[in-house]
Design brief:
Blueprint: H1 2-20, H2 31-41, H3 60-68, H4 72-87, H5 91-99, H6 113-124, H7 135-138, H8 149-191, H9 194-202, H10 207-238, H11 256-262, H12 267-270, H13 273-276, H14 285-292, H15 309-323, E1 325-326, E2 331-332, H16 355-361, H17 363-373, H18 384-387, H19 404-413, H20 421-426, H21 428-438, H22 454-457
Antiparallel strand pairs: 1-2
Domain Cytochrome c: 29-127
Protein name: Class III cytochrome C family protein
Transmembrane segments: 165-182, 221-242
């Protein structure tokens, strides 16, 4: 009897331990390492809290155990080679494949059992997110949201300096006005002198007399005013159609700083026709969906001042509305909405400009020429020579004048890439001629190979 009670107590203890650890019976993994692996390997198709291409993976171990009576061994097999698991006749593997539109999950045979356990531990017990440092709190009072402490301090110092300059300027202006008032007072007193009152009363000066006396001065002023007016009209006409700094709001907010800067996305991934065609087109919304089909919310570290996560998430939802994408069912509804983008760069109809010619044939020459002329603002992508440091722009703006003079200046100062085998052979005679004419240091610039011919750009 005593022996039976002893074994009974041991059984209860064992059952209690089993129940207390049932949620993590497989959990011999490291959740933090699992988080890194999950973000590197899984986030393209999965999230913890919602369905993307594949199902939500939060609590997948417990859910699989409860609903299908399957343990982590099944998950190991599925993750490493789900195709082999389906081919073996596993019913649930086939069911999952059918449920998610027969999209085959990428196998991960390179993941070790321990790494898979780390990922599963993360899906069950994800570590709490570390609170982001409040940069504004550390910075100057009243600093914009998202500004770091150093920038906020610089802004505070700059504002303080501006306030001092304004105060000193106002005091100087006040002192000058006071001095003028005193001088005017002295003049008034002088005019009121008893000896001058009679003389001033009897003296009359006509406008005709003044004109005859100072007519040369008057005519000179009229001529000067005419010259200034003509120059003003000419200058305003010359700047018609020049919109440097133009940066309109777009129907969907798109930050090039986040995409090209923070995430290092190549310009030509979206603007593919810039390399192979005359025009660099505005990408279709399908290009956006190549990434945003699986990126339904913004989780980046960078936040533009005045913007928050909810703002960026809302803009992603606009992409879904435009393309008719339903993130819940992971399918297109067919109900699309056109996006009316505002064009920023637009050459006149009488100007011929070929992007491919500059992006491909002129890439090396343009980058080298720009970096020589701008050693403090070197570029690594040919697009930046004309469009500016786009990877730092939250809102794209017209970075240059794009006038005829601006183009000609570039053609006169950009050296042709003579290391290119084609150019070296094709312009060999021209190069030798220039050396004889201008010396051994003569260089072949774009203007020497037809870069100033009217018919090249106007037809």
């Amino acid at each position: 009897m005593i022996s039976w009670r002893k074994h009974y107590k041991r059984g209860l203890i064992a059952i209690g331990l089993l129940l207390s650890t049932s949620a993590s019976i497989y959990a011999q993994g490291d959740a933090k390492n699992g988080e890194k692996l999950f973000k590197a390997q899984c986030t393209a198709c999965h999230a913890l809290d919602k369905q993307l291409v594949g199902p939500a993976l939060g609590g997948v171990v417990e859910r699989l155990k409860t609903e299908q009576n399957l343990d982590t061994d099944w998950l190991h097999k599925w993750i490493k080679d789900n195709k082999s698991l389906r081919e073996s006749g596993d019913k649930y593997a086939i069911e999952v494949y059918e449920k998610f539109n027969k999209v085959e999950m990428t196998p991960f045979p390179n993941l070790s059992d321990q790494e898979i356990d780390d990922i599963l531990e993360y899906t069950t017990n994800p570590p709490a997110a570390e609170p982001a440092a409040d940069a504004t709190a550390a910075g100057a009072p009243g600093a914009p949201a998202g500004m770091d402490a150093v920038t906020a301090l610089e802004v505070s110092k700059r504002e303080s300096m501006n306030s001092k300059v304004i105060l000193i300027s106002l005091l100087a202006i006040g002192a000058l006005l006071l001095w003028l008032l005193l001088k005017l007072r002295q003049l008034v007193k002088l005019q009121q002198d008893d000896d001058l009152v009679g003389v001033n009363a009897n003296k009359a000066v006509s406008f005709g007399e003044l004109y005859r006396k100072y007519h040369y001065v008057g005519k000179g002023l009229v001529v000067l005013l005419g010259i200034f007016a003509a120059y003003g009209i000419w200058n305003s006409l010359m700047w018609i159609g020049v919109y440097k700094g133009y940066k309109p709001d777009q129907p969907i907010y798109f930050s090039h700083k986040i995409h090209a800067g923070e995430n290092k996305i190549d310009c030509q991934l979206c603007h593919s026709s810039a390399k192979y065609g005359k025009v660099s087109e505005i990408p279709s919304m399908n290009v956006c969906m190549n990434c945003h089909r699986n990126i339904a919310e913004y989780n980046g570290k960078y936040m533009e001042p005045g913007k928050d996560k909810a703002f960026y998430d809302g803009e992603i939802q606009k992409i879904y509305a435009a393309t008719g994408w339903d993130p819940a069912s992971q399918q297109y509804t067919g109900k699309t909405q056109p996006v009316e983008w505002t064009r920023i760069h637009n050459m006149p109809d009488f100007v011929y400009f070929n992007h491919a010619q500059h992006v491909v044939a002129g890439e090396t020459a343009i980058i080298n020429g720009f970096n020589q002329k701008n050693p403090d603002a070197k570029i690594d992508v040919v697009c930046k020579a004309c469009h500016g440091q786009v990877d730092t722009m939250n809102v794209v703006q017209m970075a240059n004048d794009f006038t005829m003079g601006w183009c000609i200046e570039c053609h006169r100062t950009t050296e042709v890439d003579m290391k290119n085998g084609y150019n070296q052979e094709y312009f060999k005679n021209l190069h030798e001629k220039l050396k004889k004419q201008y010396g051994s240091g003569a260089k072949v610039t774009v203007d020497a190979i037809g870069g100033l011919e009217c018919g090249k750009c106007h037809y």
